[in-house]
Amino acid sequence: MGFFPMGYVPVGFRVFAYFKIRRLPAYDVAVNANPTAGRPAPRVSLGIIAWNEEEGIGRMLESLFQQSLFAELSRRGQTCEIICVANGCTDRTPEVAGQILTAQMGAHPYAGAFSGRVMNVQERGKLNAWNRFVHQFSARDARFLFLMDADILIHGPDTLWNMLQALERNGEATVATDRPCKDIQFKARKTPWDRLSLGAARMTGAAEGQLCGQLYCIRSDIARNIYLPRDLGACEDGFIKALVCTDFLTHHVWPWRIVVADNAEHTFEAYTSPAGVFKNQKRQMIGQTVVHILVDGYLKSLPLPERARLADTLRVKEQNDPDWLKRLVAEHVRRTKYFWRLYPGLLSHRFRRLANLNLLRKAACLPSALAGFVAAVVSSFMASRLLKSGATNYWPRADRAGFKQLSHEEALAQR
């Protein structure tokens, strides 16, 4: 049984925005202007996290500015802000994004409904970029925060608006997501490898309360009570999901805290080679292990007042003891006798998801489940070796090629 009745969100978890947030070091550079004079405070803040996306961010922003969100906010007399957090880029991502945002602020039919800027952060890493956007860059008065990657395409003009509406209309929901779609779904002729990949996606979609870190909308007071430790590695979306679906670990999982918006979808590029799949699986294994250590162990041991101010708790912990999480990981790996037991359900979760499908889909997805099982065994072995070496932040550059040639219009036409 949970500590709170169904549908009730503890008052303490709705007032985090009123706590004073310690400002982080300001070594970032604003690439372009952010004219806000005379505009109402943004109701929505959109954060785009980008690392070396010079070639693809233009298409992503093109799909963004085709969204009806801006027209709807204008009709309400409200505004939003767009902040591209370029982190550790060694290419022209900040300049390209800044030029596009500046041009749109002058030419977009609803330019009065948004402002835009690029924050060029020196330190590479999605976790740091997320923390900087949520706790420092985003407007204090924004009630809703969108987090999105710079290498996706947003489909359907109402995707973002429908996600925002899903939260406004559902007081029990904390996060709104859309439906992630792999680009290979649009291929006329799919290879056996493509079909295995799509089968794995169908199994993932069968689970309740799924949170895809590529695009989601979250209530700002909840987001600002979350701080992503620097050694969390991958699976920050799994960490966020665990916190929001349990109201910061005060009860069992309530999957309805995450709602999937109707008629909302984005496309991302799938891994198209065995090497890419194994690298991604290895990264996921490391991330899931760290999430397990935090959520099922360390965080549950914290007193309720510390969980009620979790962002401050974790930030202070990291400032005072930068290697605290690495030590927890090292202790966990030493206690784990077999590499396939890095976290519960490592080998079995695919078959549990398979059980949620109807008979025809089970038959169609069984090869994907078996292939995923083999990949999990190999990847967990590689992840265990890396964790034993003391490393947690494994972010290989994805060897994906072809998504940048898929324009927004082409993707829509192939649907």
Please, could you describe this protein's structure?
The structure is a single chain. The radius of gyration is 21 Å and the shape is globular. Helix content is 42%, strand content 14%. The model is unreliable at 1-27 (pLDDT under 50). A 9-stranded mixed sheet has the order 1-4-3-2-5-8-7-9-6, sandwiched between helices. It has 15 helices and 9 strands. The protein is of the alpha/beta class.
**What portion of residues belong to β-strands?**
5-15%
In the predicted model, the low-confidence regions spanning at least 5 consecutive residues are: 1-27
Shape: globular
| H/I helix tally | 15
Largest beta-sheet characterization: 9 strands, mixed
The share of residues in helices is 40-55%
Q: How are the strands of the biggest sheet laid out side by side?
A: 1-4-3-2-5-8-7-9-6
Q: Which structural class fits the helix and strand makeup?
A: alpha/beta
The number of E-state strands comes to 9
Instruction: Give the ordered list of helices and strands.
Output: EEHHEHEHEEHEHEHHEHHHHHHH
Mean pLDDT: 84
Report the span from N to C terminus: 44 Å
How large is the radius of gyration?
21 Å
